């Protein structure tokens, strides 16, 4: 077993110092900890990047970010998420000619969550009438995007347990549990329609700081458009989807404009 | 092997971008660099043209590297640009002799007001189609040469060249002092107040009026035509398009038929309606302009209406009022309530543009009661974008004599789902948004690609247009009419005409 991680210890010491005061400058922190300025600066830069620390542009002083001061870190506003993600989700739909959807879990207690929420939706290239589904609820057990969130979101396990408690048929409960396990192991989710959804879907995770899964990004079309005959995701679709998810992650993590 | 991409340069007000598009009109790679905004005095806005050319030379290889292609893969390059901004430079050295004076610069506002009285707006309208205003090039150019007589003298001697930003970039791209091609396109020339809108040639009377020597003027060419061959990092690539940014967005949205309208929502908003090969003169405060001209001479005109403050109002809610942390959060705030609670916001921060053209108008928040919360105010802010759009659309429809069938929207604010629905509700037509929101860059790419045969015709381009979303009207006529009455009453208050509607 490895010992304690030195950089984490140092980061904790910095956070403790920042929590005690009203903003401290680099030299001050370096003196208090007996560490070189470059070491402290490197740790501070990482803490700023993950959103735990903010730097006052006027004085240069470092402060704890509002996010870590609250009881629970506040997730990104759903409309801001759409605005940041739109170029990547649009591009995904344009490249695949499939409908694309970005789905999140609603901001409430895990045990109260019964469905996902559509943060963004882009039409497929089909001329058929389509409706903007932004803000619509998403079935967590029956869609690729939903299963992805159950599998990898930090509160996905709790949501899954509460969904399974409400599930009356043991058989379909087992099927969902197997589906989520398979999703977790292969890193993407698949659905083959049913319960009011047409065609088939594939979804991958969208990650934020530290790899936390904050949303799932999926495409939907006819079964042949997204799945192989063996019912796994088509390689070309998955590649485009992964690229768009990485781009979306990057857009969500970049500094506020 | 045939070249696989077209490169587009978007020389905008705040940055210069190079974007590479594939055969399907999809963005494949890009580079971007911002330039300084120089404010020497209140109301003055300048750019450094040398800096803009320097940035252009950087973003081109950046975009090529982003996609991992070489210059041999580029079939053509096109330029879209901020309109009306101009610079003068030395023919033999390429050195600018003045700052680029930007379209937003208001130093000549009183000069323009004076021209409205003498010789009067009609003198200009009959020739250029547009009235005198400080943002049209000739007014600022004439001021510059009046305040620096040595420049007028050097201009008359033929030492200097004049250009809007596409002219400056193309001259440099094609060799600069060493054989650079000195051209502008019909859309950019239509915003100088020096081109005759019917003949599409420089107008002798306007040149004489502003005392602009012909020797400094670029040749006017179609928006889509091979004007020369690039040197430097694009060596060998045909320079095949130049077009003003708003006209480029109209083309990028594939609004090729008369009656088709696009609206770009940014800090302000610009609506353009294709009016076909006829100039539609406006009696409702719209500006007739050239939409595009293709290499075979096919041309289309447009009516343009502009809204000074759209996204800028949301920025004010964020920075001025501090009600939201980021602009998109306005939608979250607005969704905390079902309506604006009777509150109406008219953002006449610096006067009202189309169709009112009142520089003296000042903003109004009407219907304030203690019932109104931040949520109601946020909703009223988004509704004001919809009603301002409607004012322009109604004026355009009246001028063109045809009602609007649908609106093609683009720009950052189209990510606001609630506002898009409001626009559809208020206009009572469908609003559609394309998957390619970078319509300014795409338009110039299309025009360049057409000139070199990368795309065979405009029908092919239409097939590239892919609908990302569509919002259909859901508002009842009663609600629409009552909102309309409240909006009109509030606009009346900004104009100070005392028309306070009852009830």
TrEMBL record, chain A:
The protein's UniProt keywords, in alphabetical order, are: DNA-binding, Glycerol metabolism, Transcription, Transcription regulation
Q: Which residues does the UniProt record annotate as the domain IclR-ED?
A: 67-254
Gene3D superfamilies reported in the protein's UniProt record: 3.30.450.40, Winged helix-like DNA-binding domain superfamily/Winged helix DNA-binding domain
Protein's UniProt keywords contain Transcription: yes
What are the recorded Gene Ontology BP terms? glycerol metabolic process; negative regulation of DNA-templated transcription
Give yes or no: UniProt keyword DNA-binding.
yes
GO molecular function of the protein, one example?
DNA-binding transcription factor activity
* InterPro entries attached to this UniProt entry: GAF-like_dom_sf, HTH_MetabolicPath_Reg, Tscrpt_reg_IclR_C, Tscrpt_reg_IclR_N, WH-like_DNA-bd_sf, WH_DNA-bd_sf
SUPFAM superfamilies tied to this protein: GAF domain-like, Winged helix' DNA-binding domain
Functional note:
May be an activator protein for the gylABX operon.
Specify the HTH iclR-type domain's residue ranges.
Answer: 5-66
Source species: Flexivirga endophytica
A Pfam family: IclR_C
Protein name in the entry: Glycerol operon regulatory protein
PANTHER family to which the protein is assigned, alphabetical? HELIX-TURN-HELIX TRANSCRIPTIONAL REGULATOR, ICLR FAMILY, HTH-TYPE TRANSCRIPTIONAL REPRESSOR ALLR
Automatic annotation (TrEMBL), chain B:
* GO process terms (BP): glycerol catabolic process; glycerol-3-phosphate metabolic process
Return one GO MF term. ATP binding
State a GO cellular component annotated for this protein: cytosol
Q: Which reaction is this enzyme known to catalyze?
A: glycerol + ATP = sn-glycerol 3-phosphate + ADP + H(+)
Q: Domain (Carbohydrate kinase FGGY C-terminal): give its ranges.
A: 262-451
Per the UniProt record, which EC number(s) apply here? 2.7.1.30
- Which InterPro entries does the entry link to? ATPase_NBD, Carb_kinase_FGGY, Carb_kinase_FGGY_CS, FGGY_C, FGGY_N, Glycerol_kin
Its pathway, per UniProt, is: Polyol metabolism; glycerol degradation via glycerol kinase pathway; sn-glycerol 3-phosphate from glycerol: step 1/1
Keyword ATP-binding found: yes
Domain (Carbohydrate kinase FGGY N-terminal): give its ranges. Answer: 5-252
Q: Which domain of life is it from?
A: Bacteria
> Pfam families attached here?
FGGY_C, FGGY_N
Q: Keywords on this record?
A: ATP-binding, Glycerol metabolism, Kinase, Nucleotide-binding, Transferase
EC primary class: transferase
Q: Describe the family membership recorded for this protein in Swiss-Prot or TrEMBL.
A: Belongs to the FGGY kinase family.
Per the entry, what this protein does is:
Key enzyme in the regulation of glycerol uptake and metabolism. Catalyzes the phosphorylation of glycerol to yield sn-glycerol 3-phosphate.
Name under which the protein is recorded: glycerol kinase
What organism does this protein naturally occur in?
Answer: Flexivirga endophytica
From the UniProt record, report the name of the gene that encodes this protein. Answer: glpK
């Amino acid at each position: 077993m490895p010992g304690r991680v030195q950089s984490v210890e140092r980061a904790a010491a910095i956070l403790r110092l920042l929590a005690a005061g009203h903003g401290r400058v680099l030299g001050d922190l370096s003196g208090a900890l007996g560490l070189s300025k470059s070491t402290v600066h490197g740790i501070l830069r990482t803490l700023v990047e993950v959103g735990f620390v903010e730097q006052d542009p006027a004085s240069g002083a470092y402060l704890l970010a509002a996010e870590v001061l609250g009881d629970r870190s506040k997730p990104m506003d759903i409309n801001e998420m759409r605005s940041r993600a739109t170029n990547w989700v649009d591009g995904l739909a344009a490249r695949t000619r499939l409908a694309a959807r970005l789905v999140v879990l609603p901001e409430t207690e895990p045990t109260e969550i019964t469905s996902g929420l559509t943060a963004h939706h882009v039409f497929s290239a089909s001329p058929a009438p389509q409706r903007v589904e932004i803000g619509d609820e998403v079935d967590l057990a029956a869609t690729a995007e939903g299963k992805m969130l159950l599998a990898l979101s930090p509160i996905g396990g709790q949501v899954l347990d509460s969904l399974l408690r409400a599930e009356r048929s043991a058989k379909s409960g087992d099927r969902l549990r197997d589906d989520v396990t398979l999703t977790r192991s292969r890193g993407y989710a698949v659905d083959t329609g049913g319960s009011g959804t047409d065609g088939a879907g594939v979804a991958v995770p969208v990650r934020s700081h530290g790899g936390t899964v904050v949303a799932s990004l999926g495409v939907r079309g006819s079964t042949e458009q997204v799945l192989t005959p063996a019912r796994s995701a088509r390689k070309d679709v998955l590649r485009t989807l992964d690229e768009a998810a990485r781009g979306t992650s990057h857009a969500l993590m970049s500094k506020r404009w | 092997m045939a070249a696989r991409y077209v490169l587009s340069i978007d020389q905008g007000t705040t940055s210069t971008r190079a974007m590479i598009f594939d055969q399907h009109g999809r963005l494949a790679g890009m580079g971007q660099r911002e330039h300084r905004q120089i404010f020497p005095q209140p109301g003055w806005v300048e750019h450094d043209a040398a800096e803009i050319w320097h940035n252009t030379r950087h973003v081109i290889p950046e975009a090529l590297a982003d996609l991992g292609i070489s210059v041999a893969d580029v079939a053509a390059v096109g330029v879209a640009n901020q309109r009306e901004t101009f610079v003068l430079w030395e023919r033999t050295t390429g050195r600018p002799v003045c700052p680029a004076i930007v379209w937003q610069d208001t130093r000549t506002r009183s000069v323009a007001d004076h021209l409205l009285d003498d010789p009067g707006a009609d003198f200009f309208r009959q020739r250029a189609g547009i009235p005198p205003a400080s943002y049209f090039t000739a007014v600022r150019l004439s001021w510059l040469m009046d305040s620096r007589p040595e420049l007028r003298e050097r201009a008359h001697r033929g030492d200097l060249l004049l250009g809007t930003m596409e002219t400056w970039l193309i001259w440099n791209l094609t060799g600069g002092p060493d054989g650079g091609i000195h051209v502008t396109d019909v859309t950019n020339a239509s915003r100088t107040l020096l081109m005759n809108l019917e003949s599409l040639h420089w107008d002798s009377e306007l040149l004489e009026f502003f005392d602009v020597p012909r020797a400094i003027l670029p040749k006017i060419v179609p928006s889509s035509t091979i004007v020369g061959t690039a040197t430097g990092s694009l060596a060998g690539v045909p320079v095949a398009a130049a077009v003003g940014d708003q006209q480029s967005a109209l083309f990028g949205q594939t609004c090729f038929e008369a009656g088709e309208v696009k609206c770009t929502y940014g800090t302000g908003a610009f609506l353009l309606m294709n009016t076909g090969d006829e100039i539609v003169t406006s009696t409702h405060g719209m500006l007739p302009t050239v939409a595009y001209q293709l290499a075979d001479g096919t041309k289309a005109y447009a009516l343009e209406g502009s809204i000074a403050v759209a996204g800028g109002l949301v920025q004010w809610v964020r920075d001025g009022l501090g009600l939201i942390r980021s602009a998109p959060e306005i939608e979250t705030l607005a969704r905390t309530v079902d309506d604006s609670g009777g509150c109406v916001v008219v953002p006449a921060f610096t006067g009202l543009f189309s169709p009112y053209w009142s520089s003296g108008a000042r903003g109004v928040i009407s219907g304030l009661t203690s019932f109104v919360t931040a949520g109601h105010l946020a909703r009223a802010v988004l509704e004001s974008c919809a009603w301002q759009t409607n004012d322009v659309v109604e004026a355009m429809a009246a001028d063109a004599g045809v009602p609007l069938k649908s609106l093609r929207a683009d720009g950052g604010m189209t990510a606001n789902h609630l506002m898009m629905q409001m626009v559809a509700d208020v206009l009572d037509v469908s609003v559609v948004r394309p998957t390619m929101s970078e319509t300014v860059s795409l338009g110039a790419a299309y025009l360049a690609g057409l000139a070199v045969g990368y795309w065979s015709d405009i029908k092919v381009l239409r097939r590239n247009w892919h609908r990302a979303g569509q919002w259909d009207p859901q508002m009842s006529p009663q609600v629409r009419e009552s909102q309309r009455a409240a909006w009109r009453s509030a606009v009346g208050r900004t104009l100070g005409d005392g028309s306070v509607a009852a009830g």
